[in-house]
Write a structure and sequence with these properties.
The protein has 274 residues and is of the alpha+beta class. The chain is built from three helices and twelve strands.
Length: 274
């Protein structure tokens, strides 16, 4: 009787999100400084593709230390984009975050340590894009979070691998994310990358006359790949949540039975007296 009144239904807005409890990386943000946004200088990156850095405390341990570093690259706050998530742009202290890459979209994590070949310019495996993202993580954490480094006094090498998602290499739905706030609000979302082969249309749609091309290609946007964090579904409580009571249900049943016995006994005594 109690549960239906306290659980709120999930209202999905689209069918492109599969509810899951399994995440590639997840953890809690304990401090504001554990969630960082790196915004490049316009002259070096005219597309202004930002990198979101999450320093996560794994939810299954007993301390509040950082265990995992996740770097999500290519996200921009495109207010005119479909289902753009303003929630993703702000930090919820104490919230649990989860991230998945979409293998269906051909995406995979690049796990980078300070001595990995992928960021070594003299190696045949060198990837300048990944090297740039890794350097952004170092730049934003070297002095603000020295506990992430082997030498705290003189931070040089990160003691943790950085799990990098370079979203702009593909277009379409390239990953999923979830945020569970301390008040048990759950926001599920995805990362959708737009680009020349998957553009955001900004012109008027002429549905009555298909021969009248009201939107030539120069009105389609963007002309480069950029990722939008989108909201997909939201609920005020997790689906596994159940109402907790301070006393067992059997006590309620026993108390009700005792009241019934006493009522029956008193009723019989009144009949005998009469």
């Amino acid at each position: 009787m109690i549960a239906p009144a306290t659980n709120h239904p999930v209202i999905p807005t689209q069918g492109d999100f599969e509810f899951t409890e399994s995440w590639d990386y997840k953890g809690i943000i304990n401090r504001q400084s554990h969630r960082i946004t790196y915004s490049p200088i316009y002259g070096f990156d005219p597309d202004m593709l930002r990198t979101f850095i999450y320093c996560l405390d794994e939810a299954n341990d007993n301390d509040t230390a950082i265990d995992t570093i996740v770097a999500l690259h290519g996200i921009n706050p495109l207010r005119n984009a479909p289902r753009y998530s303003l929630i993703f742009e702000s930090t919820s202290i104490g919230a649990e975050y989860g991230f998945n890459m979409s293998s269906e979209a051909g995406m995979e994590w690049v796990n980078v340590e300070y001595d990995s070949d992928v960021i070594n310019a003299s190696s045949s495996s060198y990837d300048p894009a990944i090297d740039e993202i890794y350097e952004a993580v170092v730049l934003k954490t070297k002095y603000s979070l020295p506990e992430l480094y082997y030498n705290i006094t003189h931070p040089v090498n990160l003691a943790f691998p950085v799990h990098i998602a370079n979203f702009v290499t593909q277009t379409g739905i390239v990953g999923h994310w979830r945020q569970i706030n301390k008040d048990k609000t759950v926001i599920n979302g995805n990362f959708t990358t737009f680009g020349p082969d998957n553009p955001i249309f900004t012109g008027p749609v002429n549905e009555t006359d298909p021969t009248n091309y009201a939107y030539p290609e120069d009105q389609w946007w963007p002309q480069f790949n950029v990722t939008v964090a989108q909201n997909v579904e939201r609920t005020s409580l997790p689906r596994t949540h159940s109402l907790q009571v301070d006393f067992p249900f059997t006590s309620i049943v026993a108390s009700f039975a005792l009241v019934l016995v006493i009522f029956t006994f008193v009723k019989k005594n009144r009949r005998k007296t009469r």
